[in-house]
């Protein structure tokens, strides 16, 4: 290919920029249907509980995009240019691709800030990006998953070991790996999401020397169709009933602190732990850990070499 820059579309679910943006965000998630006042009040109360009116969540993603840019600059100076595209907030995925085209980008790689592939998550991001890229004449390569990348596993192993030490006084402890639930129908589709999560969990557990662990789900949507379970709150009840005194929460399906971590684990699951009389410790999220930034940079470069060489 020519020596032109390769665009990198860094995609994630998205979060409102402030409390004022919650209704627009929720409406987009609901495919243009505005939430009821009760639904809006409930979601707003969750954000209020974790941010207290100050809204740093978008900055987490911005820092990760900047961190990836720095890692790519270190590996291949001047070769890559990162753009952000969000599923449910501005700049939307299509906005990111449009920005690339405006800058004259002809080749791009898409990567999602989620290590595990599902047709319903990463697949849907890539579909939107590829359709817009095709419309604008950009050749588009994709990183579908990076769930077994050695540097990702190393970063997670370190976090599990660090958090586990904080539970030394409350043995026995069970490690609960978790990720965002999806509708059960993905199993009929032979979707790789569940298997990839189990692969990551086993690699991290082995690396950390943990033998007593279980995979569980969290943050299921509230729809009529069944979602993958058991939920972490249910698993915690079973764990406490079995005589465990501590639980180490390792939400490996997420890479930064947002609602599913700060509310679903740090508030909801912590409240459940207090009620059950057990101690809950959560691992630190990946954020801009250099090992995670290198994981993303390696994955982007591998995809570019495979398609644009």
Automatic annotation (TrEMBL):
Its EC number is 4.99.1.9. It catalyses: Fe-coproporphyrin III + 2 H(+) = coproporphyrin III + Fe(2+). Gene3D superfamilies: 3.40.50.1400. The keyword Metal-binding applies. Fe-coproporphyrin III binds at residues 13, 30, 46-47, 125. Keywords: Cytoplasm, Heme biosynthesis, Iron, Lyase, Metal-binding, Porphyrin biosynthesis. Fe(2+) binds at residues 180, 260. It is an enzyme of class 4 (lyase). It is found in: Cytoplasm. Its main location: cytoplasm. Belongs to the ferrochelatase family. This is Coproporphyrin III ferrochelatase. It comes from Paenibacillus lignilyticus.
